[in-house]
């Protein structure tokens, strides 16, 4: 298993992705099928996801989306109890809309940097805090109008090898919207041998979300899991400095396979439900929004520790 420092740092990174509020997200850093790992200072991830073509409801038009992700963590140990985990993450979402659609953005980028300070008070308690800076916008969008920032604090409590509980509280600004303050509970509970419940934060290929999942240890290095999560992307557009937003709830199944003690492959397939697109003017006032039909969303992720 990974130590609490790596676990908390990864949770912070994912939480930053979706601007807190309801959209706060994260990846599952504690996977019970992992081999016992030696401490490593670097963490590297690559992810891809494809959301199949879907129709906009009560409107003409359709779209599909390709998503890519790259993430790098570099940990600095000041002492056995005090560490800094520098987290860098980049996401690229390529939207393809039909000509009849009201929504016409294409290449959306997201850059995130979060230096996470971690203090291990004892064997059970880990405390953390981090400033957060991110830029989210379409190619050509004004750089100065696409930044958001904030910070968060939290803790993780390891009650036993089978149960850990935590809480993240973050405050973050949003593009042309009010700043948000959000508490995010974290739960990992191995309720019977081989079965683990995780609530609060989850990973799904190139994206992350708030939700829950249940994992079943199929073999020593393989886990099957199923669950659902909430995702939200909000970004500045190139055209007239407008603002766009996408929300969805994937219901998924996935497999995580640790190919080596320091490298894993994750594959997932899901149905993207409750999808919605929203377009606002440069001041955050709604122009239009449309739900879209349920559609397939699938992909995977490679994860290396070195």
Write the layout of secondary structure elements.
Elements: H1 4-15, E1 42-55, E2 62-77, E3 82-97, E4 107-120, E5 125-138, E6 147-160, E7 163-174, E8 177-192, E9 195-199, E10 202-204, E11 207-219, E12 222-236, E13 243-260, E14 263-280, E15 286-292, E16 295-305
Antiparallel strand pairs: 1-2, 1-16, 2-3, 3-4, 4-5, 5-6, 6-7, 7-8, 8-9, 9-11, 10-11, 11-12, 12-13, 13-14, 14-15, 14-16
In brief, what are we looking at here?
The protein has 306 residues and is mainly beta. The protein contains one helix and 16 strands. It has one domain.
Round the mean pLDDT to the nearest integer and report it. 88
Beta-strand residue fraction: over 45%
Number of discrete helical segments: 1
Question: Measured on Cα atoms, how large is the radius of gyration?
Answer: 19 Å
- Tell how many strands the DSSP assignment holds: 16
One letter per element, helices H and strands E, the order comes to HEEEEEEEEEEEEEEEE
Instruction: Give the N-to-C terminal Cα separation.
Output: 15 Å
| Poorly predicted spans | 1-37
Question: Taking strands numbered 1, 2, ... along the chain, how are they ordered across the largest sheet?
Answer: 1-2-3-4-5-6-7-8-9-11-12-13-14-16
Largest sheet: 14 strands, antiparallel, barrel
- The domain count comes to 1
Structural class: mainly beta
Percent helix range: under 10%
Coarse morphology: globular
Can you give a write-up of this model?
Helix content is 4%, strand content 67%. The chain is mainly β. It has one domain (4-305). It has a 14-stranded antiparallel barrel. A hairpin with an 8-residue loop joins strand 5 (125-138) and strand 6 (147-160). It starts with a helix and ends with a strand.
């Amino acid at each position: 298993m990974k130590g609490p420092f790596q676990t908390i740092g990864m949770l912070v990174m994912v939480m930053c992705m979706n601007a807190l509020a309801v959209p706060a997200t994260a990846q599952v850093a504690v996977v019970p099928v992992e081999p016992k790992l030696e401490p490593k200072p670097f963490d590297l991830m690559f992810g891809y996801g494809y959301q199949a073509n879907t129709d906009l409801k009560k409107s003409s038009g359709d779209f599909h989306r390709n998503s890519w992700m790259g993430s790098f963590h570099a940990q600095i140990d000041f002492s056995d109890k005090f560490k800094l985990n520098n987290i860098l993450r980049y996401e690229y979402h390529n939207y393809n809309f039909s000509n009849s659609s009201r929504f016409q953005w294409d290449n959306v980028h997201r850059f995130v940097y979060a230096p996470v300070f971690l203090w291990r008070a004892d064997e059970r308690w880990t405390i953390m805090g981090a400033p957060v800076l991110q830029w989210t916008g379409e190619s050509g969008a004004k750089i100065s109008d696409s930044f958001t920032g904030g910070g968060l604090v939290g803790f993780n409590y390891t009650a036993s090898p089978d149960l850990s509980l935590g809480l993240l509280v973050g405050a973050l600004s949003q593009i042309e919207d009010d700043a948000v303050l959000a508490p995010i509970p974290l739960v990992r509970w191995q309720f019977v041998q081989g079965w683990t419940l995780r609530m609060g934060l989850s990973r799904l290929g190139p994206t992350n979300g708030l939700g829950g999942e249940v994992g079943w240890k199929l073999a020593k290095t393989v886990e099957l899991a199923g669950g659902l999560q909430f995702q939200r992307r909000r970004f500045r557009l190139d055209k007239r400095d407008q603002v766009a937003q996408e929300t969805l709830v994937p219901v998924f199944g996935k497999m995580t396979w640790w190919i080596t003690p320091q490298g894993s492959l994750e594959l997932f397939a899901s149905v993207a439900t409750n999808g919605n697109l929203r377009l606002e003017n440069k001041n955050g006032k709604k122009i239009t929004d449309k739900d879209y039909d349920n559609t397939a969303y699938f992909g995977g992720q490679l994860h290396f520790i070195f």
